[in-house]
Amino acid sequence: MAPMRATRAACALPCLLAAAALLPGCGGGSGSTASTSSTAAESAPSRPAPPPGEFPSAKGRTLRQVLKAAKGGPAEVVIAPEAMVFYPGENRYPFEVYERDGASVTDAEVALYYSRVPSPHRGAKSKTGSKGQLAKAEEEALDQPAVGPFPAAVETLATKPAFRAATTEEGAEVAGVVYSTQLDFPSDGDWRPAAVIREGGEVRAKLLPIAEVGIFHRVPRPGQVPPPIDYGAALGKKPIVLLFATPQFCQSRSCGPVVDVAAQVKHESGDKAAFIHMQIYNDDDPAKGVRPQVRAFHLPSVPWLFTINRHGVVSAAVEGALGTELMNEVVDKVVAE
C-alpha cells in the first residue's frame, strides 16, 4: 500500500464506533458543546459556482496563455487539493483556499483548468535522469491546449452547535468551507490543473499539483462490492455510511469538521442507515501503521466517505471534505436504493 496521505497529510481516527452509532463530538471527546464565539465555519455560507463566463476562456489557448490572462499575476493564497484518486470521466475535485498565515479564505471565486502532461519519450534521457524528464514534461504541459473553466462551488463545513466538537471550536486552523468542482478527465495519465482566482477585484492564477488519473484503481467505486471488513450486523441488511476520518492526528484542516458533519447527519437520519466511524491506525498510534480495514479499501488519503446499500454494493465514494448538504445527498440516495 502506498504511504498514507491525507489531503496534505496522513490522518487517523480517534474512535471506531459500532455499526449503528456515530456519536456527536467524536473529533473532540466530550467537549462538543458550542461556544458563543464566532468561527470561520459559522460565518461562511455555501455558495453556488460562479458562471464560467466570469473567467478567462480556454478556447484556442494553451494553459500558459490562460494563466497569463489572469492580469493580477501569481496568486498569493495557498490552494490545497483534497483528492488524489481520479478516473477517466467526471471527478469531484475538492480543495481548500487559505492565506499563508493559515486563515481560511471563504469568499474567493475560483475556477480550475487543466492540460495534458505529455508522456516522456520512451528511452529519452536528460542530465538529471527520469526526474528531469518528468519536470520537462510538466513544463511542456503549460503549452498544451487548456480545458476549462470549471468554476468551483463553496460548501460550508458548519454544523449545529450540538454537533461541534471542542477541537473544531478551538482549532485555529480548522477549515470553514470546502471548494469543489467537477473535472472531466478524458483518459488515464497525468494532467496539470491550474486555478484562476477572483478575489478583492483582482484575478490571479496558480498551478496545482499533477493529477494522476487511473493509478488508484483498487479503491472501491460505486457499483462494486466493498471489501469484507467488519460492518457489524448491517451489511446486506441496512444501508451503511462508512467514514474514514479523524482530527486527532490529521494535519488536514477538514478532518474535524467532517466528523462533526457526520455526527449531525447521523442524528438527523435516525435509524435509516448504520453509521460507522472507522479508525485509521492500529491502537490509535501512527507508529503502528494503518489498520487492516484501511488497507482493505486501499486508501491513499483521508477523509473518505463510502455509502453501501442494503444489497451490499457501494453506492457512493467521496474523497475529501464535504458538508451536510452533500452528505445528506449521498445518504438519501443509499437509503432509497
Brief sketch in words of this structure:
This protein has helices spanning 40-43, 63-69, 130-140, 166-170, 255-269, 292-296, 324-336, and strands at residues 78-81, 89-98, 109-116, 147-151, 153-156, 177-185, 189-199, 202-207, 211-213, 240-244, 274-278, 304-308, 314-319. The chain has 337 residues and is an alpha+beta fold. The chain is globular and about 55 Å long.
Commentary on this structure:
This protein is α+β, with helices and mostly antiparallel strands. The protein has a domain at 40-213. The protein has 7 helices and 13 strands. The protein has helices at residues 40-43, 63-69, 130-140, 166-170, 255-269, 292-296, 324-336; strands at 78-81, 89-98, 109-116, 147-151, 153-156, 177-185, 189-199, 202-207, 211-213, 240-244, 274-278, 304-308, 314-319. Strands 3, 4, 7, 8 and 9 form a 5-stranded antiparallel sheet that branches. The longest helix has 15 residues, at 255-269. The chain is globular, with a radius of gyration of 20 Å. The model is unreliable at 5-41 and 121-129 (pLDDT under 50).
